Amino acid sequence: MGIKVQQAISLAVAGLAAGSMPAAIERDPVRDAALKKLASVAGERGWSVAVLRDVAGPEADLFFPGGPVEMVEAWSDLCDREMMTAMAETEEPRLSQRVKQALLIRLPVDPAMRSGARKGFGVLAAPCGRGALRRSLMRTVNAIWQAAQDDSSGMTYMTKRFTLGAVYGATLLYWLSRGQNEADLAAFVERRLAGVLRLGHLKTRLSGGHKAARHAEPYAASA
User: Fold this and answer.
1) Which of 1, 59, 72, 152 is 20 to 30 Å from 180 by CA-CA measure?
2) InterPro entries given for it (predicted)?
3) At 26, which helix (H) or strand (E)?
């Protein structure tokens, strides 16, 4: 994974707190089918109009007038939706473990998907793709909380999404570079979430008192 991709992802994660939730992008079954065909070969052949036409038909590019950047952004949204569907029947009672499940489903140990994602983030790391990268990360973080069945609102809603943005960004970079082992990836996610929980407990101790503990609890629960 290139330095430019790492820098672009880190900058996009840092900018999540300053942005509002982006609008939903176009969704269509035929468009989704074209994306899946492209994603299956993108690791080897890249994200391009020519490859899309080759694998999904000569007019498939009409679905993506924005070119490769739009393709990768739409594919990220499709992966978010598939993750949410996979999480719909979870019976895990703990929020932190539901978040972990969602993260590991969203970033599976799949060589073809990781390879395609590396090429995709190369597209979004270009100056013309930075906005799409930030939007994609924000949608994914929000989708993970939705999949985890979190119902927070107000400042807690924003705090949790910003906190998870940092966790997801770190996990994403690890997954892209070294995410070929499921146990190692799961352990990495556990460490990141445990770090958030420890920070929440530390804030509670520093602020002191039962009232502060009650206010800090939703934040700590986000781990």
Assistant:
1) 72
2) COQ9_C
3) none
